[in-house]
Batch of 3 targets.
Target 1
Amino acid sequence: MNNDNYCDSLTELHGQALRNLARVKGQIGGIQKMIGDGSYCLDVLTQIHAARSALDSVSAALMQNHLESCCTEAIKAEDKELALKRITEFSQCCKKFIKS
């Protein structure tokens, strides 16, 4: 695809990310049910922590993939403008994770 905001590296990672996100979706549904059923607060918090950890794992894998594919490809292509854009975007993304 010719859009420079499109990730051409449709790797095994994306399939794994989708499977993990489906699991998180199930966890969120379970958390909603627990709250609706009046489950013990600490049990609910434990499940929230598990869902967040799963999301963090997906985020970390996608960030690594971005560096290894999107940034690297722009550098290898000697497209300085695109490489700088990719690296700047990555830096801004990292700042968001540091703040949270």
Target 2
Amino acid sequence: MQGKIIERIQATAGTKNQHFIYIGDGKGDYCPSLKLGEGDYVMPKENYSLWKLICSNKQLLKAEVHPWNSGEELEKTLLKLVDKIITPPAQVSQFDCSKCEMSKPASTEVGHH
């Protein structure tokens, strides 16, 4: 059932720039986790059914796995992932500064003529 819900949400999102973070702990969360793709994240609670299923079938998941075991850890990991998703990658300059040579700065003294 939850797998179908994930599929509907993915279909309505309809954009390649959309990323999903799925948080779960039970067996019922495994099927939805399998519906996630590259660029998505699944956050299973450590040592619970979902975590154990993921560990026994790691190759079936396309999403990145970020386990947690406390509310504090869940919050910290979730905020880090949200920040990663909404912060655009640093723009890389096309200009290679490693080959630049800094000339001596011009004198700021006022010369007398």
Target 3
Amino acid sequence: MKVLAAKGLKCPKEGKPREYITDSEPVDVPDDSTYYRRLIADGSLLISEDKSYTSDKTYEAKDTEKKGGKK
């Protein structure tokens, strides 16, 4: 799956703490990685959709509802 960091954030890559996933370009990561799934769940990483990623390297995240938790 392709992911990128939420706007203004950068997240360390799994096993490579000095390399980062940024908000400027989608990165291919393993689907079954607990590390990346956790970052997606907490909102630090966003799953990239090709139609949302434009050629001028801007990404607009869609609002997503978080399920569960306190209201």
